[in-house]
Amino acid sequence: MEPRTPCGGRAYPPPPCGTAVGRTWQYADANELPFGDGSFDAVTHGYLLRDVRSAERVLAEQYRVLKPGGRLVLLETCPPRGLLRHPVGLGVRILIPLLGQVVTGDRESYSYLQRSTLGFMTRQEVATILRRLGFEAVRWKKRFLGTHMIIAVRKPR
């Protein structure tokens, strides 16, 4: 697809069908968002925290840009626990890198997924950080045999 729409200093194709009209995409440093305090009703991200130096710093910045009563919803990987811990861990360690090698020829990128999934914080650790920052109504759901978590929180009014 030919890049057409300038965005954050780079050109991107037009948004996919069904994308909200009037929305713009912008690159930003997750540690220092270029928005004023209380700018957004909601913030969401996926697979961000495992790729930053300080998850707490990034979450504090998201807290800052949320309006009072605003919601944060995040999707992250997490190490599996309980009865499925060992079989799922084995699959993540062996099958994911192997499939990455077979399908894309790139075993190392998929080995990174294994390391970042099995070595990331638990949902309880992420929830503790969120509460410490002032978020409330912390709820989470486990997905994909316990290797992913969806956490939803609210900034107090």
Explain what the structure shows.
Helix 2 (85-104) packs antiparallel against helix 3. The chain has helices at residues 55-65, 85-104, 107-118, 123-133; strands at 5-7, 10-12, 40-46, 66-77, 136-143, 148-154. The strands form two sheets. The protein has a four-stranded mixed beta sheet. Strands 1-2 form a two-stranded antiparallel sheet. The longest helix is centred in the middle third of the chain and has 20 residues, at 85-104. The chain is globular. Strand 1 (5-7) and strand 2 (10-12) form a beta hairpin. The chain is an alpha+beta fold. 34% of the residues lie in helices and 25% in strands.
Helix content: 25-40%
SS-based class: alpha+beta
- Count of DSSP E strands? 6
For the largest beta-sheet, the strand count, sense and barrel status come to: 4 strands, mixed
What is the average per-residue confidence, as pLDDT, rounded to a whole number? 80
